[in-house]
Amino acid sequence: MILVKPRPQGTTLPRLCILTDLCCLCSHRALSHAPTSLHINQTQHCKLLPGMVSSQAQLCRSNLELMQTIVQAAREVKKTCQKTFSDMRWNCSSIDIPIDAQKYPPDLERGTREAAFVYALSAATISHTIARACTSGDLRLCSCGPMPAEIPEPGYRWGGCADNLHYGLIMGSKFSDAPMKMKRAGSHANKLMHLHNSEVGRQALRDAMVMKCKCHGVSGSCSIRTCWRGLQDLREIAMDLKTKYLSATKVVHRPMGTRKQLVPKDIDIRPVRENELVYLQSSSDFCIRNDKQGSVGTQDRQCNKTSMGSDSCDLMCCGRGYNPYTEKLVERCHCKYHWCCYVTCKKCERIVERYVCK
C-alpha cells in the first residue's frame, strides 16, 4: 500500500527539466522531495516519482526495492552536500530549492566546479547506499560482497558481511548516468563533464573500501580477528571529494584526433586525469547575491571569529564585517553515575557569543 495523498484529477507532478543538461540532478532533486511515507511496492508507484528519464523509469518498474533505496540516497545527497560545505561561502544551498522550480540555479547549471562536486557526490552516494542496502538485507537481489581472494595474515580470518560495492556500482551507474546518455541531453561538452565527474565519484567510492575487523578471544584478548571489506562513511567520502573540488581542473572542449574531448585549459599537453574533478565555467565568488551567477551571498551567514579557515569572519563575510549576538545554551552538566545502572544530570545555562556577516 502506498501512503501518499492522491493528486487531484487532471494535475501532474512537475517534469523538472528532463531534457536539459541537469537531468541527473533533476532526478535527485525530485526524489529527495519524495514523501517519507512513500513505499514503492507496485509498478504504478514509479509514476509518482517525477524527474526521471525513460530508462530510469524502466529501472524503477523492474526493481521496486532498488528504487526505494535510490530515494533514500537522493535525500542523503542533499544532507551530506550541505554539511560538507557548511564552512564555505558556497554551502550547497542551491540543491535545496522548491520542487516546482523548472531548473537549477546557474551555479549548478553552467558546468561549474560546484556542479562537478554535486555530480560526483550524487554518483558516489547512490552506489554507496545500494552497496550498504545489500549488506543490511534490504535488497533481495543482492547480498554480501565476495570474500577477498588473498590469504589473511596469521591471527586474521575473512568473515562477516562485506559491502557489495560491485553491485552498488553497476546499479548506481545505470541510474545516475542514464540522463547524460540521452541524445537530447544538452551540449556534448556538458555531458562529457558530468559523465567524467560521476565516474570520479565512483572511483572515490572504490578507494573508500577498507578492511574492518572484529576482535575475538578470552577477556577481550583479540587473539583472532574476523575481517571483511567495508565502505567508509559517506561523510569521509564527501570530504575526499571536497578536496578534489578545491583542486578541480578547468577544461575546454577541443578536437583531439577524430573527436572532441575535454582537455585542461592551461595545461593542454596532457589528458584529463581519471581522479580529478573538471569544470567548464568559472564560478562566482559567492560574496553577494547574484541571481544570474546563482549566488545567494553570505549576508547573515554565521562565521567563526577565531578561525583562520574558510569559515572565518574575514573570508566568509568578504571583508564587509560582521555583527555579534548572544545565544543562551542549555546543556546537561554535573552528571553522576548511579550503581546500577543509570546517570542523572543537571541542566546548566551558558551564554555564548555568535557572529553573522553584514
From TrEMBL:
One Pfam match: wnt
GO cellular component, one term: extracellular space
InterPro entries reported in the protein's UniProt record: Wnt, Wnt_C, Wnt_CS
Predominant location category: secreted
Alphabetical GO biological process terms: canonical Wnt signaling pathway; cell fate commitment; cell migration involved in gastrulation; embryonic viscerocranium morphogenesis; heart looping; neuromast development; neuron differentiation; pharyngeal system development
Keywords tagged on the record: Developmental protein, Disulfide bond, Extracellular matrix, Glycoprotein, Lipoprotein, Secreted, Signal, Wnt signaling pathway
Gene3D superfamilies: 3.30.2460.20
Subcellular location(s) per record: Secreted, Extracellular space, Extracellular matrix
The keyword Signal is assigned to this record: yes
Molecular-function annotations in GO: cytokine activity; frizzled binding
Function of the molecule: Ligand for members of the frizzled family of seven transmembrane receptors.
Family affiliation: Belongs to the Wnt family.
The protein's name: Protein Wnt
Organism lineage: Eukaryota, Metazoa, Chordata, Craniata, Vertebrata
